[in-house]
Amino acid sequence: MPLPAEFLEYPHRAYGMDQDRYDWQPADRRAPLHLKSGAKAMAFITIPLEFFPLDPPAKPFKHPGAMVTPYPDLRHYTTRDYGNRVGVYRLLRELGAAGVKATFAVNASVAERYAPLIETIRTAGHEIAAHGISTAHIHHAGLSEDEERALVTQTRAVLPEAITWLSPARNQSFRTPDLVREAGFTICLDWESDQRPLDMRTAHGPLTCLPNHYELSDFLMLSTRSQSEEEWADQILEAAAQTVAEHGARGAQCFGFTLTPYITGLPFRIEAVARALTGLAAMEGLEVATASEVSAAFAETSS
User: Fold this and answer.
1) Is 10 a domain residue?
2) Does any domain span residue 118?
3) Which of 127, 128, 230, 251 shows the greatest Cβ crowding within 10 Å of its Cβ?
4) Which stretches make up the NodB homology domain (predicted)?
5) CA 155 to CA 112: how far, in whole Å?
């Protein structure tokens, strides 16, 4: 049975990337950028602090880390809770030992429930980013504009100082960038279209997207693909080394990756985290910073 004709219709189909948020600009057709600091590349680390309800909604889909077995799925719930109670403090310890600052993407529900944890992160000098309300509040095209605006507004009320946004499950509707920018967020970690900050057009001004690489995520590599901790740490360091090595041809570039407290905060994985962090911190030509610092540094680059 053939598909309906409207399945082949897309209003933004055009030369380039089939969307109007940013221009098509391949890496080999633009002038190299140079950072004022002299660094050849920058890296940032995203650490999600998420609230997982025991009985999550299935529409539009369950968050990738959501409960798995029938209600009440206490096994997976307590595993996630372990990340916010124990694992995150191991990550904080290793970040401090390496002298590295990270961007903690915080669900509003977590900020309301775990105030001492949020204060510890702030005191250590890390960035607090907004990560929506919770893993049960997915942004998607099935929401009305008012419904989605309410999700962003509620998150903003709990995290008024955040300028960086990461959607729950990194999922958006077509209007999410407009609503996020309308609420005062200027940086977004959902898209990874480039290897330098990319200014997206919104109805309320530019929204800077940073390449937060899912392919380096601990959730994907260690949990979904079952790679070893040693392989994962090697891949992070190789990504950094290659990004630095490309400076001569492409100028300054950046990338990010995710550390999930209930995955890499476990005791048998923390040594790999420490090796990755110390390796990044010691790498010549690489600067490790928060997402907002990366955005600011590239805003001052010269070609």
Assistant:
1) no
2) yes
3) 127
4) 77-163
5) 10
Q: What is the CA radius of gyration of the chain?
A: 19
Q: What is the CATH number of the domain that holds 194?
A: 3.20.20.370
Tokens describing residue 221: 């590599």
Distance CA 173, CA 142 (A): 8
> Residue 29 falls within a domain, yes or no?
no
CA distance 295 to 231: 29
Three-state SS sequence of 169-205: HHCCCCCHHHHHHHCCCCEECCCCCCCCCEEECCECE
What is the value of pTM for the model shown? 0.95
Number of domains in the chain: 1
Q: Encode pLDDT of 137-167 as tens digits.
A: 999 999 999 999 999 999 999 999 999 999 9
**Does the residue 268 lie in any domain?**
yes
